[in-house]
TrEMBL record:
<comment type="similarity">
    <text>Belongs to the drug/metabolite transporter (DMT) superfamily. Small multidrug resistance (SMR) (TC 2.A.7.1) family. Gdx/SugE subfamily.</text>
</comment>
<feature type="transmembrane region" description="Helical">
    <location>
        <begin position="57"/>
        <end position="79"/>
    </location>
</feature>
<feature type="transmembrane region" description="Helical">
    <location>
        <begin position="85"/>
        <end position="102"/>
    </location>
</feature>
<keyword id="KW-0812">Transmembrane</keyword>
<dbReference type="InterPro" id="IPR000390">
    <property type="entry name" value="Small_drug/metabolite_transptr"/>
</dbReference>
<dbReference type="GO" id="GO:1990961">
    <property type="term" value="P:xenobiotic detoxification by transmembrane export across the plasma membrane"/>
</dbReference>
<feature type="transmembrane region" description="Helical">
    <location>
        <begin position="33"/>
        <end position="50"/>
    </location>
</feature>
<dbReference type="Pfam" id="PF00893">
    <property type="entry name" value="Multi_Drug_Res"/>
</dbReference>
<keyword id="KW-0472">Membrane</keyword>
<keyword id="KW-1133">Transmembrane helix</keyword>
<keyword id="KW-0813">Transport</keyword>
<protein>
    <recommendedName>
        <fullName>Guanidinium exporter</fullName>
    </recommendedName>
</protein>
<dbReference type="InterPro" id="IPR045324">
    <property type="entry name" value="Small_multidrug_res"/>
</dbReference>
<dbReference type="GO" id="GO:0005886">
    <property type="term" value="C:plasma membrane"/>
</dbReference>
<dbReference type="GO" id="GO:0022857">
    <property type="term" value="F:transmembrane transporter activity"/>
</dbReference>
<dbReference type="InterPro" id="IPR037185">
    <property type="entry name" value="EmrE-like"/>
</dbReference>
<keyword id="KW-1003">Cell membrane</keyword>
Length: 108
């Protein structure tokens, strides 16, 4: 169950990052509110997951999901550049996440 909480927390991190971009510097109310609610949810679920998962694993996976998710949303929704180097960087992050999950250092 902690991995499910962590995955949802990572997705919510992508939501709040996208909403922050859409808030135009907190000048648009609805995206700012979406950002705040999804940020609180993301932190809460991360905290619950950290009850049983190691700090390094949980935080790395959470930020990795957020980073790769934001990269993907940026490309798909905002028309950001897709370059070989950016794709390679995202692939390395995913590889690191897989290795972190497989390391099995004390998590349940």
């Amino acid at each position: 169950m902690p991995w499910i909480y962590l995955a949802i927390a990572g997705v919510l991190e992508v939501v709040w990052a996208f909403a922050m971009k859409q808030s135009m510097g907190f000048t648009r109310l609805v995206p700012t509110m979406v950002m705040g609610v999804s940020m609180l949810g993301s932190f809460a679920l991360l905290a619950i997951a950290m009850k049983t998962l190691p700090l390094g694993t949980a935080y790395t996976v959470w930020t990795g999901i957020g980073a790769v998710g934001a990269f993907t949303v940026g490309i798909m929704a905002l028309g950001e550049a897709v370059t070989p180097m950016r794709v390679a960087a995202a692939a390395m992050i995913v590889g690191g996440l897989v290795l972190m999950k497989l390391s099995g250092t004390g998590e349940t």
